[in-house]
Amino acid sequence: MATMEAQAPAASSRRWVALFFIGLAQLMLILDATVVNIALPSIQRDLGISDADRQWVITAYSLAFGSLLLLGGRIADSVGRKRTFLIALVGFTAASALGGAAQNAEMLLAARALQGAFGALLQPSALSLLSVTFTEQKDRAKAFGIWGGITAAGGAIGLLAGGALTEYLDWRWCLYVNIPIAVVAAIGGYAILTDSRREDKARFDIPGVVLVTAGLVSIVYATSRAEADGWGSAKVTGLLAAGAVLLAAFFFVESRVRQPLLPLRVITDRTRGGAYFAVALSVIGMFGAFLFMTYYLQVVKGYSPVKTGVGFLPMAVAVLVSAAGLTSRLMPKLPPRTLIVPGMLVCAAGMLWMQTLDPTTSYASGVLVAQLLLGLGSGLIMPPAMNYATHGVAMNDMGVASATVNTSQQVGGSLGTALLNTIATSATADYIASHGRTPAIAKQAVVEGFSTAGAWAAGIIIVGALIVAAVMNTPRPQPATAEDAKLIPEPNPLPAHP
């Protein structure tokens, strides 16, 4: 008895140490989605990338990430979550080194796509490991509060790191910095994590992979081409139609195959479906804000990369206060939509605040207010959304359910960045065409473009909040029972031999 009592605190302590290494991997992935944002003007000049194509430095990563996450989730379930976690860290490190050494735009975009592909293996295995490690309601809420804080704040921290690395070293270090982070996460994960996998042998749904990847690429590429070719062009409409047909075929195939890439039971649940939808629409505002504020501060206001990065710190602080300080305490007491819906509305308010910006607006009255609103809103959304993404799911589907919420995040970011960048650049071009081109008008035109895109983002998020309010009718969490505990078995507190 005494031995068992002594093992309990040790097992609990081991879980929190495991959270550190899992969270470190998650932080690296989120950092990599935004760390190049502040470096983007430098990358653009160095490698000769056009304004219309600049968003592909971000989108190549997030699109590969989002389109392959479902496959990554299935691989994690079948091969083993710890093993997948470690393999993905090695691959991500190699792709980061390749990107840092890029000599042209094509090499950089290929490296970013490879980062996304290995990230698609890493993130669902990490979230699955978190889900099976924390099963008690109170600890689970705290763990997912920390995870949500990392997810939401990581983007702003990436901007700060990107600014410092770009100004004091070189933009290439925005990619090289992943190497030491991944090494620490891999060593710690090897030592502390416990492996788990589905019991039956899985078959991989290759037709599903091809259809969903091709469909998403078609839609994102069409959105990115709209700025140059126009929304009514044959190329853009054809690509959009092809993407819609391919995604429809994907869902048809998933309803017919024996072991689908994405079992429809995972997304048709109102709780999980609402969580996925909330994440997808919320990151449209976050990714758009990162892109627009970076260019506003550097191009319009003339901030250095480091000063720009420091300027994003309030957003990171707001996220941490909201997610870890407030939301993690409220999650065990409130229905999820009472946190997510207000969070989405606060994010929308942050995007609308961008309407107040002009070239002479002070930081405190402009960007700072928008950042605080976006940070507070995101901190209310991410922890419950990530927590309920695996709500009630069977153990065999844990990886794919984890992958689905991450797919929502990455695809939302890809589509949002491409769509909002297209809207912003089109509005800027229209303003210059009607007002002429002088340095003052050029700056005002950039602000007009960002304001227009921000209004669109706010509208999308508000509509999403109304849909989540109607769909996600999950009641407040109930105290765990012995029967509930049987649904997700407690993992072995001692690490299995790799």
Please give the structural blueprint.
Layout: H1 2-47, H2 56-79, H3 81-100, H4 105-133, H5 137-168, H6 173-176, H7 178-192, H8 206-229, H9 234-254, H10 264-268, H11 270-300, H12 305-311, H13 313-330, H14 337-353, H15 367-388, H16 398-435, H17 439-471, H18 482-485
Helix pairs in contact: 1-2, 1-4, 1-5, 1-7, 1-11, 2-3, 2-4, 2-8, 2-16, 3-4, 3-7, 4-16, 5-12, 5-13, 5-15, 8-9, 8-16, 11-14, 11-15, 11-16, 11-17, 13-15, 14-15, 14-17, 16-17
Summarize the main sheet. Answer: none
pLDDT average, as an integer? 78
Radius of gyration over all CA atoms, rounded: 22 Å
Total strand count, please? Answer: 0
List the total number of helices. Answer: 18
Output the helix-strand order: HHHHHHHHHHHHHHHHHH
Strand content bin: under 5%
- Helical content class: over 70%
What is the SS-derived class?
Answer: mainly alpha
Low-confidence stretches: 1-8, 480-498
Task: Kindly report how far apart the N and C termini lie.
Answer: 29 Å
| Molecular shape | globular
Keywords summarizing the entry:
globular, 0% strand, mainly alpha, disordered C terminus, 498 residues, 18 helices
Concise overview:
78% of the residues lie in helices and 0% in strands. It has 18 helices and no strands.
Explained architecture:
The protein is built from 18 helices and no strands. It is mainly alpha-helical and about 500 residues long. The longest helix has about 45 residues, at about 1-45. It starts with a helix and ends in a 13-residue tail after the last helix. Mean pLDDT is about 80; it is low at about 1-10 and about 480-498.
